[in-house]
Amino acid sequence: MSLKGQDFIDLRHLTASDLDNLIALAAKIKAGDIDVSDALSGKTFGLLFSIASTRTRLSFQVAVRQMGGHAEYLNADQLQLVNHESLTDTGQVMSRFLDGIIVRMYNMKNYGEGRSALQTLADNASIPVLNALDDKDHPCQVIADLLTMREKFGPGFKKKKLVFSWGYTERQKSLGVPHSMMVAGSLLGMNMVFAYPEGFDLDEEYIRFTQKMAAESKASISFTNDLMEATEGADVIYVKSWKAINMSVEDDLAARRRVQDDWRISNKHFERANKDAIYMDCLPVIRGEQTLAEVVDGPRSVIYDEAENRLHAQKAILHSIYAPVPVHQPSLTNY
Aspartate/ornithine carbamoyltransferase carbamoyl-P binding domain: which residues (predicted)? Predict the structure, then answer.
């Protein structure tokens, strides 16, 4: 399928070929093999964010600027949304001024509310809407993560064992990254283990999709409540916290505090992993919470390469939507 003119909200709407092409395009842009400096010339984007952001905000602002466009940061609290203007009206009006809306919106006290709001905006906008993280997905982050894995392991990265672990932190975060990673892995035929404490299960809707796609792609995707067992033979240990979607805020906090000592990545986990295993984390990280400093700042950590790749991933996504590669060119996956 072509991404031209499309929303970019949920990786379940993409194919394996779409994902392969996005990763390959990001790599070519990063290497300077494709010039995208004028791809967004004359275009203006609104970054509608109701949640704090460092990497996502900066990478999109810089990407748009380096591609010849302009990105305007829009704090939701400074718009008429704060006075209860509807998302329907907001989407309609923004479409008259902008060429695209990049949206970061969620509230983990009410799982699903962020996606509903994002979809309402997209349904009422006549321009592409890009998901910069809601409560269910973070597709842009995962494109950067897959690019990072390809850089570290080469074309065979899909067969490496990726352990995606819940990690203790006080903050109750979105399930966007694990969901998007699980979907991508199922489409691409990857080898993935998701480890989390009891009660922190991922959304059954995503698990059902993953199981269906994995059967077609021959992906190996499993789930466990035993982190030590999961890290045996790992090639990647990726840490991310998320809120338990079937618990209240108070019950979630109590549950995570009970298990915190067992869900903190340290060198002991890498002793069970393969010798060339890497540590990934989409950040932010508080050393001593989800991961010890010995890992975050150690030789296995690729977190800053991963963060840099957000820029190249955003460029690939924007280029695919606004200036797609002509169909007569060879497939980008052949590189």
Answer: 7-151
Strand partners, 278: 236
pTM: 0.95
Q: Is the dihedral of CA 185, 207, 223, 260 positive or negative?
A: positive
Domain 11-137+310-322 indexed as CATH 2.40.50.140? no
Helices vs strands, H then E, count in the chain: 12, 9
Q: How far apart are CA 138 and CA 141, in angstroms?
A: 6
Write the pLDDT tens digit of every residue in 97-113: 999 999 999 999 999 99
Q: Which top CATH class is 139-307?
A: alpha beta
Residue burial 191-205, b: 16+ Cβ < 10 Å; e: rest? bbbbbbbebbbbbee
At 268-297, the pLDDT tens digits run: 999 999 999 999 999 999 999 999 999 999
Q: What are the boundaries of each domain within the chain?
A: 11-137+310-322, 139-307
DSSP state for residue 301 in the 8-state scheme: B
Helix (H) or strand (E) holding 321: helix 303-322
